[in-house]
Amino acid sequence: YDYPVERRIQLVNTLVFSYLALALSVSAYLWITHSGERIIYVLIASTYPLLLINMAHSEELSLMPKFLLKNAPDAPDRLVQRFRADFFRAASGMADDDIKKIVSQTTAKGFKALKTRRARSRDVDRVVDGLLREFGYVFEYIFHTKDAPKLNRAVRALLTVAGGFGSFGYMNFYLLLGAEPGQAPQPVGFIKLETPRRYHLYRCIEVILLPLALAVALRSLRLFGVWQRAQNVAASQEIAEKEEIHLTYLSIFPEFRNQGFGCAAMTMIVNALVHNVTNDVAADRLTLVVREKNLHAQALFRQVGFVPRSAPAEASADPFSDLEGIGKPIALEYSRGKS
User: Fold this and answer.
1) Could you please report the per-residue DSSP string of 36-103?
2) For residues 62 and 1, is the Cβ–Cβ distance under 8 A?
3) Three-point CA angle 140, 323, 320, nearest 5°
């Protein structure tokens, strides 16, 4: 269950079917009283496009990933399988619950419990700060400026256009929530995942609203260059294929770094997506791209089990190849066959 998405579906359904009921009631009254035949035709005809839009809206939002990502000291179940494989003689007479207790005791030290929730409007500021801090060079290239207020307004426009359901809307981001024993969960970072699914209705809304939002944010009407550079970035990225999930953004907030949250987040994502601990999406492989000079991130991904991608998807030239300090892109993957 994903409350923000389901609430949007229910709201639109309620409005459309309320109008449908009203239109049919008025039409029936006019038919009985033999008045206003043209009005009847208008009312009935107006229901068809509304029903089609409602069907497209419901289908689009229903297909959005609804992840129940979480981890705990006694999860995932594959730790039980690994324990049985490593200690098969001792484990032969043990129940799974007993093994989970042993596993939880051995992993309790340094373990970070995490779960996720879809980003909300109040999280936009933190997501914008994280994107500009970690991946600022991407947005500096797209918007052709290093002016911090302009970049902040432009990225905020990307996140909030079309009610947050656009291609880069905040509804596509998930907050990582960590909690110490006895404390309420608090955001420690965020992720963004790309699936093979493509949506159309909110993309149409985005095409209309985004240029206006960016023109206000950048205080400029030179949007063709922005669009062209955005296309260059999109063309250089690998597109998620069938049975694949692509991790496009991972950020741990500065105050929570070097505490194990990055490793816990990657382990959780792998277990949820590749090992089917999710309510909506299962994948044969999880892919990502890391920069050559980001040695810390490379070490983290390799620790979790990522390896260089054997046959990366074709992509155009890297638009950031001239930037110092980031290096070339390296494609990594975690797949069932290599896990």
Assistant:
1) -HHHHHHHHHHHHHHHHHHHHHHHHHHTS-----B--TT--THHHHHHHHHTHHHHTT--HHHHHHHH
2) no
3) 65
User: How much of the chain is helix, strand and coil, in % rounded to 5?
Assistant: 55, 15, 30
- Position 337 pLDDT exceeds 80: no
Task: Tell me phi and psi for residue 187, to 5 degrees.
Answer: -65, 130
Q: 3-class DSSP state for residue 24?
A: helix
Q: Which residues have C-beta within 8 Å of that of residue 140, sequence separation ≥ 6?
A: 146, 151
Gyration radius of the chain over CA positions? 24
Q: What pLDDT was estimated at residue 128?
A: 97
Structure tokens at 11: 């709201």
Q: Which of 165, 188, 193 is nearest to 61 (CA)?
A: 165
Q: What is the DSSP string of 283-324?
A: -SEEEEEEETT-HHHHHHHHHHT-EE-SSPPP----TTTT-T
Q: Report pLDDT digits (tens) over 182-223.
A: 778 899 999 998 888 777 788 888 989 999 999 999 888 788
| Contact (Cβ atoms closer than 8 angstroms) between residue 304 and residue 275 | no
**Residue in the structure block whose two tokens are 């992720």:** 191
Q: 21-64 pLDDT, tens per residue?
A: 998 888 888 888 877 778 888 888 888 899 998 998 988 888 78
In the sheet where 173-178 sits, what is the strand order?
Answer: 114-118, 173-178, 186-194, 244-252, 285-291, 329-335, 307-308
Tell me what pLDDT residue 235 has: 83
